[in-house]
Amino acid sequence: MAGFVRHRRSKRIIATLSGFEADLLRSLAAQLVELLRNEAAVPSESADPLEAMFSGGEFSGPTTEPDDPVLARLFPNAYREDGEAAAEFRRYTEGSLRDGKARAAGTIIDTLEEAGLPAEPGADELTIDVDLDPATAEVWMRALTDLRLALGTRLEVEEGDEEYWYSLPDDDPRGQAHHIYEWLGYLQETLVHAVAG
């Protein structure tokens, strides 16, 4: 795969993915959406939207850091030295941040399916032409960052640990997952350059 490039005339951002790559990307995005949605706070059932907003609805999110390490990495404490301020900030912001991240990952899924990826996996022999306008490219950049953070957290990737990953045998699932992590980084890097170009 050649990564993302900017079309000279139209200024659109384009890439060609194999069916396998597109399927993999869609699967990763769907897993992230599921994680974000399943761990989200239950919304208030008040019939009055104004009452819900101020009595525990829209602005009543979680106040503690998530137990899941991926979610803790995606939603770190805003105030490390002040637990009360961190809890209050989280209560007012985490719900909308989760929604935004889930929508961004959903945009990847929608874009791939609009580009011709079948809804069911198994389209390995296809190639998918991804064509992004600048606004959608920005959403993809945010979603790729979240996907990479999520996978890196699950793998416990650390700075300077490349030698460990390259020493793993080819059939080690951790090494294979790390290759996906690096591939996401490559996609992200080429997309950033294409947007900036």
UniProtKB/TrEMBL annotation:
InterPro entries documented for this protein: AosR (IPR018561)
Organism: Nocardioides immobilis
Domain of life: Bacteria
Protein name: DUF2017 domain-containing protein
Pfam families referenced in this protein's UniProt entry, alphabetically: DUF2017 (PF09438)
